[in-house]
Each structure stands twice: as C-alpha cells, then as structure tokens.
Structure of sphinganine-1-phosphate aldolase:
Amino acid sequence: MAAAAKAPAPARAIQASRSGRNSNKGGVASLALAWLQLALTYDNARTAVFLVVVVRYLDRLLRHLKVYGLTASLHQVYRAISARAFALLLKTPAAKRKVNRELRDAMKDVEAKIVPRPKHIESQHRLPVLGKETEWLRSELAKLQKMEAGGVDANTVATLWQMRDGQSVWKDGKVSGAVYHGGDDLSDLVSETIKAFLLTNPLHPDVFPGVRKMEAEVVQMALRMYNAPETGAGATSSGGTESILLACLAMREWGRRTKGITEPELVVPVSVHAAFDKASTYFGIKIHHIPVDPVTRKVKLGRVARAINRNTIGLVGSAPNFPDGVIDDIPSLGVLAKKHNILLHVDCCLGSFLVPFLEKAGFPSEPFDFRVEGVTSISCDTHKYGFGPKGLSTILYRTSELRRFQYYVKTDWPGGVYATPTLSGSRPGSIIAGTWTAMMKLGESGYTQSCRDIVGAAKTIASRIETEVPDLYVLGKPLVSVVAFASRPGTTVSIYDVGDGMSARGWHMNGLSGDISAIHIAVTRLTVPVVDEFISDLKQVTAEARKKAGKKEGGKEGSMKALYGLGTGVSAGMVIGELASRFIDTLYLV
Ligand SMILES: *Cc1c(COP(=O)(O)O)cnc(C)c1O
C-alpha cells in the first residue's frame, strides 16, 4: 500500500532530471530518455504492477456489482465472512466433537437404511478364490434384485435421498421421476438388443460398423426432433450431466479460440441443473446465477443482460427446468445471445422426448429449439422420456464447427493417435443400440401418445391442486411433466410437513430449497394411473399438516422438514455439505 502514497513515478523522475541536467540543451529527447531510465527503477516498476493489480480488481469488482447490485454483493461478502468464521469455529476441539457426534448419529440412520445387511445375502469383500457356480449366481442375483432398503424410523435424513429402492417401490408409480419406464414390451425388446450388442464399443468403428451407424442415426433423429438446420451436428454421451459438461466445455473453447477469452463466464438462471455448476468447477468457468421471477419462474431477462460482459462465453435456459418445470423465455435469451455474439445452450435433458411433441399432442408450448435464433446447442436425454436404457443422452449443436470444440485430439500419444468426441474413451455400444431400438419402436406416434398421457396427468395434478387443495398453490405455469407446489401465503401449513406426510404414505417427492420452499413431482408413465390416489393423499396429508401447525408443539419433525428447515444459511450449508459427503462415503460400504 505504501507505494501508492508516494509521488507518482514520472513526476519524481522529471524532478530528478531537471535538477541534475539543467545545463544540457539536448531538449525534449534527452529529457524523455532520462525520464524513461528513472521510471524503470525497481520501485517504479513495483508501483506500476501494483496499479495494474488494483485496476484489475476494481474492474472485477465493478463487473460483479453490475451483475448482482450492491445489496446482494454486500450479502455475499457477509456470507463469505460468516463462512470463514464458522469454519474457524468448527476447528475448535469442543465444536468438532459436538458436530462429529451429531453427524455420526445422523449417518447411523442413513447407513441402516441404505446399507442393509440382510442375513440371507452374503457380503463379498474379495474375489472368490474359485469362480462361483452359475446356479449360485442366479439365486444370488435374484435376491439382490429383490433387496429392500433397510427399515428405519421415519425421522431420518435417509429418506431425503430417496433410497428406498427395490423394484416394488417404483413399480407402483409413487416415485417422482427416477424411473422412465416405456412399458414391459419395450423393456423386453431393449434387453434383447443390449444382449446382442453386449461387447460392442464405438471407440472402434471399424470393428463395430453397425453400432457406429446406430449412433449416427440416434443423433440425426434427435437433431430432426429439435428442428436443427442442415448444418446441425451432435454426439451421444453417457447422460444429461455429460451432455451439459460437453456443452460448457465447447463454449469455453469457442470463447478461447475465437474471442481470446481466458477468464470465461457463463450466465445461467438459478433454476438450471447443478450440472452447470459442476462444469464451472471442472472447467474453471465463472458462473453467474440469475434469479427467476417469483411468479412466472422464468429467468429475469434484465438481470441476464446486466450480467453479460466481455468475458461472457454464453447463456443458458431450460426447457423445462428441474425445480418447477417451467420453460425459460428462450426467444429473448436468443436475442441477447445474438446481440452480444455469445452462445446459448438450452437444457432439454428433462424435456427430452416430451417438449418436441407438446404441439402434436395438442398441448400449448413455447419456443425452445433450433428454430429460435441464437440457440447454439441443446442437450436432450434419451434415457429420460426417450425410454432408452440408462446411460445415454445427446448433445446437439447448430453447426459441426461448434461440435468441434468438444473434441479431444492427441496426435503424439505413444499409444497412437488418440481422438474422442466426448469425455469417455471406450463406450457401451449396447446402450446406444438399446436406445436406437427404443426410438425406432416408439416413433413419432409412440412419443406423441406418451406425451399426451404424461403431460395430461401433470396438467390434471396441477389443476386439481389449484382447485381442491386450498392451502397449496402451483408454482409458475408448468407446461411439461413437473408440477411444483408450495404453501399459499397466509396458511400455516408447512410444505415440508406435506412432503413428509406424502413420504409416510409411500410417495417420493422432491424437496425444493430455492427462493420459495416447495416440493415437486415429476410425472412419469408410472404416475399416470395413480393421479387420483395422489390427489386424495395430498388432500389428507395437507389437512393433517394444517392440524399439526395449529398445535404449539408440532410433534416429531419429519426428515424433509428437518433438512430443509435448517434453511440456506452459511452454517446449515456447511453442515449439509458435510452430511452429503458422508452420504457418498456410505455408498461404498460393503
Ligand atoms: C435430469 C436432468 C439433467 C441431467 O441429469 P442426468 O442425471 O445426468 O441425466 C439435466 N437437466 C435437467 C433439467 C434434468 O432434469
């Protein structure tokens, strides 16, 4: 800091030169030379570097203020300081002991639930010395398939991660999202296909030409579904997350190679999938989360515009988003993207094989695909409403030049020239083949019908909540399969009590912790036949929650309420973060 207080370097240099060389008539040139010599001293260089750093930080600070405004920025500073303080506090032995004890207790419940160790199934800790008999394997596999999650008392955080798996649970249609079942006939056909292509690997197109053909066709069919122009190009990936990672990677590389952007920034609605944050972390992209309108649930366009600067590589919109199933205003995002010469990705991972069929199925829709100018890439999951086997998605681009930015090529690898289109090396040809089968089997007619059934059921749920459950209201205007709902302002009903009540009746709902506390259901084919049961349960559970709220002591808290009741404060965030990591650790216990 001291350097800044001194007289500016050029001024001092000039003073020195004047006093030293007054007699010299060399004039301006020698004066300039002397100025330069003196200006290049260590001290001055240090001042100059300091000034450059200050200017850069100021520039960053101003850009940050432009995106978030003063109040929100101050709040962020406050949060950052509290996080530091809380982290320090947690380091004290007493606090460490207390937190550890509580987390351990919570994790005991989680472990009991998701790592059940039933007596009749052996645990395997090492390779069998001698390979097992086929008969033994068949019987063991049958047991594993029927294995149920451990029973624990209702007041456990485990239910939050909805690990009550086992076939019987999802088959009755009470699970939100998770299982995208295309019907038993389709499942049989896809299984046959997977068996036939079990050992194939598209990394070797010369060895498996049939798989290469099927992959190209899956991508081409998806491009057509999303009305890509003739220049359109795409690839398959291992799932929606990988498609999003690839889209972000391509954006970053596009920004670097065509605009020289070295500190890339991405502007996304708060409602986008967490995979964009994952991409930001993995690929060193700064991400700006823009709030959504509290009523429409669409991203606030004015705030998006304010967040764009010379480092921005692209924008993102969802069609629809995961939390409340709303489609962002894609045409307006497209206008912004074009105006600033940046890219626009539309996340249709969830919309997948529903949004392209909304109009054909007779439902209202909003523009979301390549027909919207400015849209440069789209992610579409075949393993969601495409009813393909898990482990496949597509990433689609407006041009093949854009697709190039996600490729990886290494020409001097000792193992030979190495080039892959996506994150993986070897890939499962069987999953691609299974997806091709599902798409060919259903066709436009099949997907239009499934859209009619699924979106129809979602619409029924939304309108019946609005008319029959006065304590609740539906967020935004959901056009696709997700219906999110919250407690109406003024009622005493806690929406998380409702979530816990539904959970007690076997429903697996998703808790949402955004600006509005809410829960949602993602309707699948399995939900369609149980809509009446859902509404009837929801009515009863809401009535119970109202009674509970009336009493002073609400009794035992349910797990959803316990977790989301912690709020979104700094300390809650850190505790939940630790809990989540321990949860992942638990997944690898034998
Ligand atoms: C499911 C989903 C994704 C991707 O999820 P994966 O589990 O990786 O397939 C992305 N965006 C939205 C909106 C989603 O619902």
